[in-house]
Amino acid sequence: MPRFIETDGMNILLGISGGIAAYKTPELVRRLRERSADVQIVMTASAEEFVTETALQAVSGHPVRNNLWDKEAEASMSHIDLARWADVVLIAPATAEIMARLAGGAASDLLTTLCLATESPIVIAPAMNHVMWSNAAVQANRKTLEQRGIEIIGPDSGSQACGETGAGRMSDPDEIAAIVCGRNSSRGAAPGLLDGKAVLVTAGPTREPIDPVRYISNRSSGKMGYAMAAAARAAGARVVLISGPVDISSPRGVETIAVQTAEEMYEATHAQIADVDIFIAAAAVSDYRPDSVEAQKIKKNDATLTLRLTRSKDILASVAALQPGPFAVGFAAETNDVRKYALAKLKNKQLDMIIANKVGSDRGFDHDENTVDVYWQGGSKSYPTAAKTALAEDLVLLIAERYEAVRGTGTQPSLARPKHATNPEKD
Ligand SMILES: Cc1cc2nc3c(=O)[nH]c(=O)nc-3n(C[C@H](O)[C@H](O)[C@H](O)COP(=O)(O)O)c2cc1C
User: Fold this and answer.
1) At what angle do helices 96-103 and 136-147 cross, to 10 degrees?
2) CATH for the 198-294+305-416 domain, from 1.10.150.20, 3.60.15.10, 3.40.50.10300, 3.40.50.300
3) How close is the Cα of 116 to the center of ligand 1, in Å?
4) Which residue ranges have their beta carbon within 6 Å of ligand 1?
5) Tell me: the pLDDT tens digits for 193-228?
6) Which member of 55, 117, 162, 298 is catalytic?
7) Phi/psi at 311 (5° precision)
8) Where along the chain do the CATH 3.40.50.10300 domains lie?
9) At the top level of CATH, which class does the domain 11-182 belong to?
10) Residue owning the nearest CA to atom 29 of ligand 1
11) Model confidence over 386-424: pLDDT tens digits?
């Protein structure tokens, strides 16, 4: 059987139908490929109105199929071979029309013919105007498809391309990729691994106001923390995310609390910490804040301006010092001597685990990929460069294993460890 790209991931046949959300499919392909999937694409005629074959060919690395009667394509890999090749058929976006054709058992074009010819699971991510989605005919088709074992992802609620608000948005490409690749992936935290556990995650930067229009902050995008929260949720945990100001949407099923300053993040963390099993501190909390905040905008009257700064409270150390406290995981973002600083932070703050990454203008903050080394008392593990979303799945798996090792057996090293001094040293 022909196979164009050798990967250790799944063979995913992506069917794209003619909804406006088709413009998001090049990103979806990238997210699937980041998870080592080999992706071949079949488009309906209407889908070609919304996204180009050229873009999809470039991101998938395969010619795109759009015609049942393409003799050349049939000669190199017949539609039956393509149906057999697929480990899963994913249709995203799935229009009301394709749902009707699938429910009716049609084989009127390449995509519907493939769906009848495959023995692999079919997953669809519907996307349409919210009134269309709530239409009785569409809901009847949804029910029929579900009863036949077709898995339905979404749709999500929110503002729609048509300017209205309601249920009908295609789920986030990253979420679709995580669900589809997580079905039989060997990587990442398996669903159910953290069932019954409460996980608290901090993410993003903090902003420390100087005056009503200025603040001190850092380059953290929040992507790593959000990915950790999503991965913990996917592993079955109840997840609360405390987030500084970022530009990404809250992971599905995660309660997100928005804060601005380090002080607010400290207060929100301690308001949530009771009964938390695992605390993951991925936020880049400002170490210092201005002594005082000017009530009015500071004018540029003088050639120099001196700001006096005060140390922020150390959120991670304060949580790690709780007795009893959660399994405490920190992140160390360093520009140099990463290992040395990470090990010092692990020891000084008496953490259960530290995830160290090098940051700079070309890596770490605000990038989609990351490379990390993880340390704990008596062990370490290195992870090669990977998408933050995929890396988060692996890190959650490691955290679950370490949690089980130190808390699951009845031995609780962090409960037995010596108490901190009242004001633990920050690095
Ligand atoms: C601008 C525009 C946007 C559309 N967006 C959607 C959509 O988001 N969801 C949907 O179900 N249909 C949408 N349609 C209608 C479908 O394109 C139409 O039903 C088409 O027959 C679907 O064919 P297909 O499922 O074979 O791709 C849209 C049509 C237009 C003109």
Assistant:
1) 50
2) 3.40.50.10300
3) 22
4) 17-21, 44, 46-47, 95-98, 127-128, 132
5) 898 999 999 999 999 999 999 999 998 999 999 999
6) 162
7) -65, 135
8) 198-294+305-416
9) alpha beta
10) 19
11) 888 888 989 999 999 999 998 874 433 333 333 232 233
